[in-house]
Design a protein that fits this description.
Blueprint: H1 2-16, H2 24-46, H3 49-68, H4 73-116, E1 126-132, E2 154-155, E3 160-163, E4 170-171, E5 177-178, E6 196-197, E7 206-214
Antiparallel strand pairs: 1-7, 2-7, 3-4, 3-7, 5-6
Helix pairs in contact: 2-4, 3-4
Length: 219
């Protein structure tokens, strides 16, 4: 599987190389237009066009029947039944081109996700770094847990500890904590303004550590 990913990554890098200087929005718009044209061509040559035309004609006839016999409940219900059958038939005829398109498009979307789903931290931008620990991995005495950053990255606040299941987070030294109650790590994240206040150390067994960092303009 790794060699397949390596080949796909190499092909994607080669195809996207001429657009490296473009805005990501422009790149995605261009790729969407190209993908739409390719999907249309593939759909045309991998689907039963005659069958789709027949289904479309039947659907139009059933709509006309509904308009003409709208006051006859029995006829209207039969038209709706036949229309549902036509819709199912259309979906069935669309399965072969869908089966042909789904694999290459999943691979393409995976490569685009690797390149455009996330972005690097901008110079001067503040971020919150959160690390989740399992209860067994967190030492009973708090351990020597520290955050090391490369040169040029500034840690603005000490690490905070949020007990699993919610509670008052605390710093390692226990001299300050946040006034805000945190949700469990898997359900929410730190949001909104927070302020440090004196507090006792929270119980050990915390599952999340977080700190506030900033990328300085001098980088």
């Amino acid at each position: 599987m790794n060699w397949i990913n390596a080949i796909l990554t190499w092909i994607s890098s080669l195809a996207l190389a001429p657009m490296q200087s473009w805005s990501p929005t422009v790149v995605l718009i261009v790729l969407s237009v190209v993908a739409g044209v390719l999907m249309t061509v593939v759909f045309r040559y991998t689907s039963d066009q005659q069958g789709l035309k027949r289904v479309a004609s039947l659907t139009k006839a059933q709509l006309m029947c509904l308009r003409i016999f709208k006051e006859d409940l029995g006829v209207a219900l039969r038209c709706q039944r036949d229309m549902l059958k036509s819709i199912g038939r259309r979906l069935w005829l669309s399965l072969p081109p869908m089966a042909v398109l789904i694999v290459p498009f999943v691979l393409i979307l995976t490569q685009l996700s690797l390149r455009y789903e996330n972005r690097p931290i901008r110079t001067g931008e503040s971020v919150i770094l959160a690390v989740e620990f399992s209860p067994d991995a967190w030492p009973d005495d708090g351990g020597d847990v520290a955050i090391e950053v490369p040169e040029g990255v500034v840690i603005e606040t000490p690490a905070l500890r949020a007990p699993q299941g919610g509670g008052r987070p605390s710093t390692r030294d226990g001299h300050s904590a946040l006034r805000r109650i945190l949700s469990p790590p898997k359900e929410g994240a730190l949001a909104g303004p927070v302020s440090p206040v004196p507090s006792e150390v929270a119980d050990m067994g915390a599952s999340t550590c977080a700190t506030h960092m900033v990328m300085p303009p001098s980088m």
